[in-house]
């Protein structure tokens, strides 16, 4: 009805107005005062100069028109409008404002064009509502047309109009155009500054937001509650605790400390800056807490690994204030489930969301994908992702990360390729999420190509991306390049330090990792849960037993960090390395968290290294009961049965794998040559230089005194020994790759080999001896540990 009435007189609009009609009035326009107040609300007041120009009988009609608009009765308002004299700009403004106020944004724009066609002159009250309609519709082209018209008629620098232009460009996502309008304004009011501070913050550019806020104060403007809320949000983005505390002081001086919106923003800022104690203090001072304040406090606990406190806060919210959780509560709680491995609680939240009909909701669905991915339930993560009606870049990034976290690197790369083919543009999080997959599958040269692609995208200086690049080079076996890139980073955060600590940890240089931790603390960085995962990994791989327990015990006592599943897993690795299998079993029984496949996997690996088949069977039963990816578990258990001569159990395991459709991963090793990756499998004779490789291998085997028939014969049935000699470990892929690396790289350079499965004992021992007789450093990355072989020794100290 509204659209039809707009165009009911288009035949008149198509008539060209005479030049005299198009000329603006020669009289000086009447100045309007208090432009922020609506001229359409009835109230007892003196007649304005505009109303004095209207005939008495028209004034009552105009007031009725305003009444219809204020009541949202736009059909009635349009019917009355059509009966009125259309020459008055005021009544056109009333209708346009009514359309905008009632969410009829396209109708507002159409009515403006009808106004133009009928030759009615627009004023500075017309354009703000039309501009707002363009912003709500994300209509950039229409908005730019209106902007051009404003410049043409001399309203392009009007403060009131410019504020609406800034808001429109920010809503559409063109912050550069908003900046241009703002910079060209000769006079700016508080609304102008607040719009830019908020716009930068919403765009995720916390630094620019804070700089704009600081400039506003420098020029003598006093911040109000809206400016402070936006500035606190910017502090949350950039983790600027000091500036956040300064703004808190301004809040107190401005007597806004009891404003619930400001208090909630302070809770959010302190929570995201890691100061949970300060957040609690602000929260406890709130007299009447609403759902937003409770959600901010729950989110602060979850972000800082206070898992039990986040759920306790939920309970208090329901019992003390009788507040019902909403969808944001669910989103804020899910990270607690992710970090603590609380799958049951995560599923409960999912069920609650379904019962309350919170789904579909993009942010909640994305949080569920993240939770299931981090809890090892990749199947459920894929199910939620595939059921999503709407997906944004964050959703795709989360699914890529879920694949990486669960070791499905090829699927992660396929999804990344899918993102590149979508209209979506990959962002810094996309690249950082997929880089670990590239690190696991790609060679160093391929990693360098990805690095070049990142620079081409303009993300080379991004701290988040830089951290991932450091990890990628470390996983590719090039610790020297990783260290050099880390040293060259201009802006380092706590993740940067965590990454370099982990880089040296996986290479077996635990002492260096601890030195980096000391340096990090000396520079004022506060460690988080991931810092201790890196430290405990370093202690586990390097066998630093006392240091590992010292760091584990200090987590809660000195830093207030509750240990998560990964921390417990690292301690189990450390106990297993030390041979304390009984202590490891007791450790699992006394854990405060429910053991996951990661925990039982650590016990299984320790049992394998110390040949405790009874404990290995116990760990395997628990892993199989969790319905986790059981391929590695079956293979490891089968090897243990073979070494013990329990051939019936070997056959049983193989039958179980066949029934479940599980296939043992084919081991392969890769080495870089002329910018590409050369791939080898066991007994490989497909390479162009096969004869030369095998000649070098034969020479090396004789030099190091290896007997090809004395390797782990207990793994084979007596009747199959002769048959298995053809598959001797002498021809394993690692040895073939090492030999090719020796003949294809310059003397003095390290030979870097990548392996997709754990290096076997025979190849590990051979690599040590080869490094001794050739006087070359050999680096072999086997997925978990990067082994550095020098002068007959390995950085892992023969435990991996």
Automatic annotation (TrEMBL):
UniProt source species: Salix suchowensis
Keyword Metal-binding in record: no
Keywords associated with the record = Repeat
Positions of the DYW domain: 731-800
Which SUPFAM superfamilies is this protein grouped with?
A: TPR-like
Q: Where are the PPR repeats?
A: 88-122, 158-192, 259-293, 392-426, 493-527
Q: Where is the segment annotated Disordered?
A: 15-41
Instruction: Identify its protein family.
Output: Belongs to the PPR family. PCMP-H subfamily.
Put simply, this protein is called DYW domain-containing protein
Pfam families for the chain: DYW_deaminase, E_motif, PPR, PPR_2
- Mind giving the lineage of the organism this protein is from? Eukaryota, Viridiplantae, Streptophyta, Embryophyta, Tracheophyta
- PROSITE patterns in alphabetical order: PPR
Q: Does the keyword Repeat apply?
A: yes
């Amino acid at each position: 009805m509204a659209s039809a009435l707009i165009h009911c007189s288009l035949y008149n609009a198509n008539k060209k107005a005479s030049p005299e009609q198009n000329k603006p009035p020669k009289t000086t326009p009447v100045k309007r005062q208090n432009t922020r107040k609506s001229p359409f609300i009835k109230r007892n007041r003196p007649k304005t100069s505009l109303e004095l120009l209207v005939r008495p009988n028209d004034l009552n009609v105009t007031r009725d028109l305003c009444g219809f608009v204020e009541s949202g009765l736009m059909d009635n308002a349009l019917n009355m409008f059509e009966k009125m004299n259309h020459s008055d700009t005021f009544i056109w403004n009333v209708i346009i404002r009514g359309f905008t106020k009632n969410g009829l944004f396209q109708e507002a724009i159409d009515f403006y064009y009808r106004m133009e066609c009928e030759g009615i002159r627009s004023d500075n009250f017309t354009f703000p509502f039309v501009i707002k309609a363009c912003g709500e519709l994300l209509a950039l082209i229409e908005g730019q047309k209106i902007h051009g018209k404003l410049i043409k008629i001399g309203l392009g620098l009007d403060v009131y109009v410019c504020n609406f232009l800034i808001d429109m460009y920010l809503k559409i996502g063109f912050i550069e155009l908003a900046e241009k309008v703002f910079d060209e304004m000769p006079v700016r009011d508080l609304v102008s500054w607040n719009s830019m501070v908020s716009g930068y913050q919403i765009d995720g550019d916390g630094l620019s937001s804070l700089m704009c806020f600081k400039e506003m104060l420098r020029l003598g403007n006093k911040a109000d509650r809206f400016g402070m809320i936006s500035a606190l949000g910017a502090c949350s983005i950039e983790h600027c605790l000091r500036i956040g505390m300064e703004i808190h002081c301004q809040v107190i001086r401005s007597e806004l400390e009891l404003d619930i919106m400001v208090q909630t923003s302070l809770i959010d800022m302190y929570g995201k800056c890691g100061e949970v104690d300060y957040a609690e203090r602000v929260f406890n001072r709130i007299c009447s807490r609403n759902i937003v304040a409770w959600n901010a406090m729950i989110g602060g606990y979850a972000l800082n690994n206070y898992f039990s406190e986040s759920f306790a806060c939920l309970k208090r919210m329901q019992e003390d204030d009788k507040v019902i959780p909403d969808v944001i509560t669910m989103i804020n709680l899910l990270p607690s489930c992710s970090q603590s491995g609380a799958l049951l609680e995560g599923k409960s939240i999912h069920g609650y969301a379904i019962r309350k009909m919170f789904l579909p909701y993009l942010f909640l669905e994305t949080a569920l994908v993240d939770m299931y991915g981090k809890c090892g339930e990749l199947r459920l993560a894929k199910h939620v992702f595939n059921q999503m009606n709407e997906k944004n870049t964050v959703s795709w990034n989360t699914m890529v990360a879920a694949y990486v976290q669960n070791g499905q690197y090829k699927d992660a790369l396929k999804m990344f390729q899918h993102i590149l083919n979508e209209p979506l543009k990959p962002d810094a999080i996309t690249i950082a999420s997929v880089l670990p997959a590239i690190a696991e599958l790609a060679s160093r040269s391929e990693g360098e190509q990805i690095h070049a692609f990142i620079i081409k995208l303009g993300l080379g200086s991004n701290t988040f991306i830089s951290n991932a690049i450091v990890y990628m080079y470390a996983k590719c076996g090039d610790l020297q390049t990783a260290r050099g890139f880390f040293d060259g980073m201009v802006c380092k955060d706590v993740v940067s330090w965590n990454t370099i600590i982990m880089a040296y940890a996986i290479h077996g240089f635990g002492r260096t990792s601890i030195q980096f931790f000391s340096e990090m603390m000396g520079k004022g960085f506060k460690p988080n849960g991931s810092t201790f995962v890196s430290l405990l990994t370093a202690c586990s791989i390097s066998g630093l037993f006392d240091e590992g327990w010292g760091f584990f015990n200090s987590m809660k006592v000195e830093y207030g960090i509750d240990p998560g599943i990964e921390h417990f897993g690292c301690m189990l690795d450390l106990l297993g390395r030390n041979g304390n299998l009984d202590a490891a079993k007791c450790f699992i029984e006394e854990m405060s968290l429910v053991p996951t496949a990661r925990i039982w996997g650590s016990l299984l690996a320790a049992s394998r290294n110390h040949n405790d088949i009874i404990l290995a069977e116990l760990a395997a039963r628990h892993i199989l009961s969790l319905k986790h990816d059981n391929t590695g578990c079956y293979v490891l258990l089968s090897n243990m049965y073979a070494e013990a001569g329990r051939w019936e159990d070997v056959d049983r395991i193989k039958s179980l794998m066949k029934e479940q459709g599980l296939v043992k991963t084919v081991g392969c090793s890769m080495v870089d040559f002329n910018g590409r990756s050369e791939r080898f499998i066991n007994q490989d004779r497909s390479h162009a230089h096969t004869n030369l490789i095998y000649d070098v291998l034969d020479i090396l085997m004789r030099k190091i005194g290896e007997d090809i028939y004395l390797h782990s014969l207990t793994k084979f049935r007596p009747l199959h020994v002769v048959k298995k000699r053809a598959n001797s470990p002498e021809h394993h892929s690692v040895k073939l790759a090492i030999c090719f690396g020796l003949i294809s790289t310059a003397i003095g350079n390290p030979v870097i080999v990548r392996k997709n499965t754990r290096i076997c004992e025979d190849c590990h021992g051979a690599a040590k001896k080869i490094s001794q007789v050739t006087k070359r450093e050999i680096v072999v990355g086997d997925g978990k540990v990067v082994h550095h072989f020098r002068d007959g020794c390995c950085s892992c100290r023969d435990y991996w």
